[in-house]
């Protein structure tokens, strides 16, 4: 989870620094809200049409979305592994009785 938080903070700083003239990136709060919307699939890439670095913005947001999905899926897999391990220990104790 710490890896995810560090990645989000890094992307907030970079996107705010590059696109602070756009309304969705004018301060850190709006930038964080925009990244959250992108993580849940509600992002519109056309807002970068009015920015100075059109293709760089699309690349950074695409990288953020991909990285976010990989990290969150990894967290889910790790949590499932812990649950399966605990359940198998429970079954081993139950089978002995």
Q: Overview of this structure, please?
A:
The protein is an all-alpha fold and 97 residues long. It has one domain. It is 74% helix and 0% strand. It has helices at 2-18, 28-39, 54-96. Helix 1 packs across helix 2 (28-39). The longest helix is centred in the last third of the chain and has 43 residues, at 54-96.
Principal-axis shape: rod-shaped
Oligomer: single chain
Q: What percent strand?
A: under 5%
Overall structural domain count = 1
Describe the sheet with the most strands: none
What pattern of helices and strands is seen along the backbone? HHH
Number of strands: 0
Q: Nearest-angstrom radius of gyration?
A: 19 Å
Q: What distance lies between the first and last C-alpha atoms, to the nearest angstrom?
A: 38 Å
> Count of helical segments?
3
What is the residue-averaged pLDDT?
Answer: 87
Structural class: mainly alpha
Stretches where pLDDT falls below 50 for ≥5 residues?
Answer: none
How much helix, percentage-wise, in residues?
Answer: over 70%
């Amino acid at each position: 989870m710490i890896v995810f938080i560090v990645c989000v903070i890094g992307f907030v700083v970079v996107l705010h620094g590059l696109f602070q003239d756009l309304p969705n990136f004018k301060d850190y709060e709006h930038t964080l809200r925009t990244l959250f919307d992108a993580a849940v699939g509600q992002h519109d890439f056309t807002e970068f049409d009015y920015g100075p670095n059109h293709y760089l913005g699309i690349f950074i947001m695409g990288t953020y979305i991909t990285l976010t999905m990989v990290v969150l899926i990894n967290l889910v897999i790790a949590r499932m592994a812990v649950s399966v391990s605990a359940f198998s220990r429970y079954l081993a104790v139950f089978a002995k009785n």
